[in-house]
Amino acid sequence: MNGPEADHTAVTLNVYQDGTLVAPADYTIVVDPSSGTAGTFTYTISGLPQYKDDGSPLISTVDETAVPINYEKTLSDDKLIVTNTYKSPTADVTAKKVNGPEADHTAVTPNVYQTAHRLLRRTTRSLWIHHLEQLGRLPIPSAACRGI
Known about the structure:
By secondary structure, the protein is an all-beta fold. The protein has strands spanning 13-17, 20-21, 28-32, 42-46, 60-64, 71-75, 82-86, 113-114, 118-119, 127-130, 143-146.
């Protein structure tokens, strides 16, 4: 979910039956769409046995082999839906107030801005540490500002 469209490509899934990894040679996966980017990919898995030798059903699940960088994976309760949610990288921002020989040596109030100069948060303490809330699609979740 979310993130750069170029990241929205098919992933590799492992298949499990009753919690045991099934060898890829024992089934076939068809992915739709088969290439390119998309908001949703459907994986059709065929060739798996449906029942154990005693006639009880085998429970099939999937899991992603490697989660893409800057994404967080969640699985549905039945472990048949994998959702990757974009988590923007964080950035630390350091600001300094440098006093000249004739300058006023009092603390200043920093203004921290994000894209389009939106004010995020400010404080008047001499040491500023900010946890900035997510704004729009390009959040800066945390930043540190130090006044000198």
